[in-house]
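debug: dumping io for the single-chain case to check the tokenizer round-trip. Nothing else runs in this session.
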Amino acid sequence: MRPISISLRLGMLFAAIAATVFLAVGAYLHQTLSHQMGQRDDNDLVNKALLVRQLLRTLPQGAPMPHEVESVLRGVIGADGVMLRVSTPDGRAVIGPALARDAALPAPVPAGREPRQADVVSVDGPNGAKRVLGVLAGGGGGRMLRVTLERMRSDRLAILKRYAFDLLGALASGAVLATLLAFVAVRRSLRALDAVALQASQISAQRLHTRLAVEAAPDELRAFCLAFNAMLDRLEEGVQRLSGFAADLAHDLRTPVNALMMQTQVALSRARSDEEYQALLASNQEEYERLARMIENTLFLARADSAQLAVRPEPLDVGAELAHIRDYFEMLAEDKGVALSLGEAPAPRLLADPVLLRRALNNLVSNALAHTPAGGAIRLDVRDEDGWLALSVANSGDGIAPEHRDAVFERYYRADPARAGGSAAAHSAGLGLAIVRAIMQLHGGSARLDPSAEGQTVFTLRFPARAKK
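debug: decoded output
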């Protein structure tokens, strides 16, 4: 199902909000007007009751009600839906119809008290609810009469009823008009999105340097533009690194391949003895092994970057792991005249993949041996750094120039290629430290180069947490 467009969604939402607000305001206005009109109707009944009471008080003692007074009362007071009843205390009608015996009417207001709006009550009748006010009035000569005023309908309420229909029509028209205007406004406001989309569509692999115009974007889209530009920065950096990686890989593969081709061409230029062919094959074997290591390391880094390497961490005894590394390289260090030692710090436990940890330490120690001259020293240490477990490999070699320190963990980077001739580093493709950094990233840690004050070169591996014993 195709999602609803933002314009339509915002238009419908605004229509719902407008209809709800209009209905609430309309209901409030109708209720307020109805209450005020009801109060006026009740006040009108009170005034009529006072008028009737005053007229009845002026009648002569024992005289019947004059016809003129009765006509006035029926014509004036009985208008606007008001029914007037005047009866004697025993129920005999004087003006208007007689009261039914079972009629439920409120108690009349005593003659000594003036009626108030609160004395007007609602009474249910056969034709619906009505407002009723009853008062006692002196009919002359001390005779008491009961005056009952009933309002079945009101011109004001009729107007209010018509007003309600007009109000509903106005509210519906207003909601529809507001919805249309909101839809137009939303469409115009979303044109900024079209402009951003147009800029984004012009970005391609050949134009990764292009960025969205943040200053020209509205405030609501600036955060998106900034995030999009940041993503382009990362993509551009990644593409450049990938391009450089491909160029470095091609360059490093071309050297051994050219050497193999040249040696083979020289060997085939004339007839050779068996010993010469055996020497050629042995030399080729070394180049094949170098190529195999390079391919293996490159594949390892590619899998690490794409998170295809499975890390299987387990609690490890750091002291035992460092001792194992020292024992492994001890004979090689002795042959080169380099002292290889362990620190005396306590041996905590570490949660790490043992295979990857040993590979990282092997790379660091191999690198240290390659760059430490005879008579130098290599030291393995472990320490606690603010809750992080730091494993370090320090060597007293020639050191690394400051301009190379930030790049030593990059792939195929060699701080001093000229120094590689004839040594173990000659077989290095500049991937050892890159593998160390990849392994630490897989463990959520980091690898850094820390030149010490004593002139030593210290590579430190920082693991995020220490395993419980």
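debug: round-trip ok. The chain has ten helices and twelve strands.
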